[in-house]
Design goal:
The protein is of the alpha/beta class. The chain has helices at 24-34, 64-72, 91-100, 110-120, 134-144, 149-163, 178-193, and strands at 7-9, 13-17, 39-40, 43-45, 59-61, 76-82, 85-90, 104-107, 124-130, 171-174, 199-201. The chain is globular, with a radius of gyration of 18 Å. 28% of the residues are buried. The structure holds guanosine-5'-monophosphate.
Length: 205
């Protein structure tokens, strides 16, 4: 009887992007439920907390001065301006997770995804989530009743710009049915974890 293989692997940075109304947050929730060990990266933002959002949980809420100070000190792996506010991903938790073989989940926009793919290369896996059609996206945005007509038009225009970035992504998930889409993102995580290129087999004793 041979001994078990001893193997290790590097951590993976899973990026999920998509327009508001794509159902991203439900998919992120499905992933963290299925993979409780998958930590969510907590970004810095200069926007104000919404609803029940808590500092340090959804975001680290900072003012523009602190944001710029941390960014200029090299504390952010990427940053971007989205809807007039600044957002940035803390660098240390990403580097630590990759080195320690832990996976992280990031909900960031197309600019951030492009930057992290450039920096982290194969350690970053980017998934674009989109509703099944432009009509459905518009319907979902209206049904939320959180935006006026001008805001809906802005979000639709931004969604069209985001779609142009699809070639920079590794996977596309069409979110028509929540269960089906959740099964797809779960399959992506399982398959990426199993890639031979990520596995470090310990030498036989
Ligand atoms: P919200 O303010 O609605 O939470 O997020 C607005 C947008 O900012 C979303 O598209 C979200 O993916 C993006 N976002 C959140 N955190 C970051 C970040 O650290 N970096 C980048 N580039 N985008 C982010």
């Amino acid at each position: 009887m041979g001994a078990d293989f001893t193997f290790d692997r590097h951590g993976i940075v899973f990026i999920v992007s998509g327009p508001s109304g794509a159902g991203k947050s439900t998919l992120v929730e499905a992933l963290t439920t299925r993979f409780p060990e998958l930590d969510l990266s907590v970004s810095y933002t200069t926007r104000a907390p919404r609803g029940a959002e808590a500092d340090g949980r959804e975001y680290r809420f900072v003012d523009a001065v602190e944001f710029v100070r941390r960014r200029d000190a090299g504390e952010m792996a990427e940053w971007a301006e989205v809807h007039g506010a600044l957002y940035g991903t803390p660098r240390a938790p990403l580097d630590d997770a990759i080195a320690e073989g832990r996976d992280l989940l990031l909900d960031i926009d197309v600019q951030g995804a492009r930057r992290l793919k450039r920096v982290y290369r194969d350690s970053a896996v980017a998934v674009m989530v989109f509703p099944p059609s432009w009509e459905e996206l518009e319907r979902r945005l209206r049904d939320r009743r959180t935006d006026d007509e001008a805001a809906i038009a802005r979000r639709l225009a931004r969604a069209r710009e985001e779609a142009d970035h699809l070639p920079e992504y590794d996977y596309f998930v069409r979110n028509a049915d929540r269960e089906e889409a959740a099964a797809r993102v779960i399959a992506i995580v399982l398959a990426e974890r199993a890639r031979v290129s990520r596995i470090v087999v310990e030498p036989a004793p």
